[in-house]
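Researcher: Structure for this, please.
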Amino acid sequence: MHRDKAIEKGESLQDFRNRFYQIASKWRESDPSFDEKMKKPKYGAWRSKVIYQTNMLTAAAAAQERQAREMPEVFTHAKYICMMMPTSRDEHKAWNGTVLPINDPWWEKHSPPNGFGCLCEKEFISKYEIRAGLEKVTKAPTTANDTTNIGENWDYSIGDADAENRRIRNQLEEKEEKLFRNYPEARKAASEANAKAENQDTTVEPELDLSKIKTIKTKPLSRAEAVRERRAERIERNKEFKQIIQSAREKGIKFIEAKKLRKPLTEEQIINKLGKKDPTPGACSSQALAYIANKFGFDVKDYRGRQSRTFFGDDSVIKSFTKSGGFAATGNNGFENAETLLKHVESGKEYYFRSGEHAAIIRRKNNTFEFLELQGKKKADGFLILDQSVLKKRFGTNISKTEWFDYLIDIEKLKDSPKFRELIGFFNTKGM
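Model: Predicted structure, token format:
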């Protein structure tokens, strides 16, 4: 429960530590030495970090497993990745590089993380990479049931556990939705009960009608003022892009030059080119940026590299993009942030939009907002209706005790920089 709360609210390690004693005090009955341990210098900081880090890694592993299972015709194998750090377990170092079919029994008990403090990962491999010889299948380093080098109670399939949890959660959500639909007053009662149970404010989720959002009308600038503003924006944009490029180089992110397309692609062609290519966490930002590049005539495919994906999904990088031609909103109410940003959306233009835990291209048609789905099942990719329900379920927009940082970027302004082509080379890839 505490892991889910940390993920849902976007909690940092410090946020978790702030309420760690209250959580951990429940262990007092089973651990008579609890109070003495907590008095030791740095004990609470150490233990809270281990719990927070392990739970977050477990949640990430479950998400990756879930996404790979949704595309069994693409991801057929998996690879054990050990970070090979001084603190890494020797036995886990020996497993590094193991490549086995996803359905191999060995994964049922050896899918990482395999204990508290374990930073190992399971990388999913496509059948195309196997066919091309980029990855080769190995033998299992131990028997499937050998759990000698796995932490106590860690010898289980995270993917199976996640699937069962989601089945139960979906079943509960379906029952709740039916109840709330038939008895609207039950929704408020449930919200108040949950808030009281979690010792939170009984704030009821706001009713956000996106069709009533009016675009902010700015005062028209004179021709001279408009020229000066565009020049100032270009200077700022160029400075920000230079910093992002320098940082990408320092982190050793691979660069592949983005070549011009032989002929412009239609919107449908770009969506077919990029859709469902990358199910890994953080891919939403990569696919949105790749869409922008193709819109501007560059042959770019969605990146899948771990470093690149993390870098271009980082809050500081997105913030730099925003300084170059966009808007930022911050506050603990994600819906109010979204409303503030959507007021700047003009009909006929497209924007990079990040709210909660998801990023996508959005646009406005009259009084209707749309978002570009690039990770949908079957024929679900394309522009879909954006409303409060989608913000909550797809974007993870929510109300929390911590601040949300959300962004809106006018993609036309990203194009207007001589550094743009160089920049997109850091999230380009040759594809599969």
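Researcher: Any notable elements?
Model: The two ends are 38 Å apart (CA to CA). Confidence is low (pLDDT under 50) at residues 1-13.
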